[in-house]
Amino acid sequence: MTKNRLKDEKSPYLLQHADNPVNWYAWSDEAFNAATAEDKPIFLSIGYSTCHWCHVMKRESFEDTEVAALMNDTFISIKLDREERPDIDNIYMTACQMMTGGGGWPLTIIMFPDGRPFFAATYIPKQNRGSMAGMMFLVPRVKQAWRHERDELIRTADYVTALMRENALKSTTSVQPITKITEIMQITYRAVASSFDNINGGFGSAPKFPVAHNILFLLRYYQNTGEAAALKMAEKTLHAMRMGGIYDQLGYGFHRYSTDASWHVPHFEKMLYDQALLLMAYTGAYTVTADEFYKRTAYEITAYVLRDMLGAEGGFYSAEDAESEGVEGKFYFWTYEQLRATLSPEETAAVIEVFGVTENPQSGGINNILHMVKAESQLNLERRTLINTAREKLFKARQTRIPPHKDDKILTDLNGLMAAALAIAGRAFNDNSLISAASAAVGFIERTMAAEPGGLMHRYRDGQSAISGMINDYASVIWALVELYEATSDNACLVSAKKYMDYLIEHFWDFEGGGFFFTDKASETLIVRQKEFYDGAVPSGNSIALYNMLRLSKILGDQQLDKMSHELIAAASAVFHPLYQGHILIMA
């Protein structure tokens, strides 16, 4: 089978598209030069290797010779891994949200050869579907507009690009620095509480994400104020998630999100960052309540991560797919007959009682998604023993199935998060093995991701580190080093943390407007140099950096860091003022 230009890339996502009939380029000067030379728009497709809808669009369109022929005639097509280049993804996701009011992956951008976007969408089917335009309609329409309506495309691209640049400069607005931290905490608490689901736990409605940093904020708020409702919201959410189908009841670890409000039917991806942040949340809940339920869940998360996500060289892999054999969730589903064939009658009865198994489940067709309808604390010793034995048998049987694809690239920012979480858990549980695992992960980063002069690289795979580090890489590693110092009192951790903080300030700090840019000042020039303050699936780089600056300023007695932390807060104020509804201070 003929391979396209992606065959030599390291990204698992790009390699998944290496045998497409689409004449893909990686993000490169070669691609942009070709677009200029051939006078073609660029079709930029952004996703990641464990993205379900990316797989769907690949099968429907990018593997289809009809669609590929149209794309090759009309576009220079670029395929991008959002996890390798979050800087580019952030820019064009912002453009998509401005142009469509929403976003997601796969992210589809059509743009001029200089990077200015004039069309944005997410998943696009091959054929028109309802009000959704399909590739077979869209591509010829873009070709027609490119030839005969280019002035209109230019106006759209100029307007969107100007608006993005204007928004990127908001944090340079001069505002009075925030000093009323208590007021901000109260406003943030009210915002979080207003979205709380009193029936099912969690925040908002379906689809429902874990949002571990909301839980961490509620735990901190309870500790600072004694507000019982904050603790109640955190505990209800943590219990509901651990009992639900969003949790892998056999192999442990959390899936990406729940498609329903009650945590029953998950989207089956497993992301390293979710494990890290939820490990922090369950550890934090144990620290506050001393409830063994949270400690046990924390240890289960670490068991999954250390068993399935730790590479032989010492770094943690990025994610596991939702699909196996082309079917989402197939690895995790159980029919009633499969359970009966694997377990004894007594064990089957216990599983039916505890995990909500039926012969004709309402969700998943004939397939059961194991979720706990009865807590283990409600079981007698005999029942609990049966459940533990059944779990072991089912897990062993599941290991014979074809597993989901694992994205085995190692990312500095995600490894920093995981190392910080392990250090926090190790300290809370007085467990040196967890602290050693955290130390090993940081050692891998410092050994393998080192870049001159004193910086870090972002991605490692197949023996090669590449891509200049971005703010989240530095911020997460500094966080891990500070947590390791707290757990071990090893001054070498502080020395490294300060070294990376100095590098971050020198290369990323906005000396005019305050706050950190997403990219190094020497990085590739893109259409916008962004700052990120809002927390998404993970806390923003500026959130983590602020947390690090506040802690290091106190540990080291560094007045300059303290001063700069207030400048960062002021920069964020320009974005969030006057409501301060962002979560930049939730960790502080």
From TrEMBL:
Instruction: Give start and end of each Spermatogenesis-associated protein 20-like TRX domain.
Output: 3-162
Source superkingdom = Bacteria
Q: Per the UniProt record, which residue ranges are transmembrane?
A: none
Quote the Pfam families the UniProt record gives. Thioredox_DsbH
What is the designated name of this protein? Thioredoxin
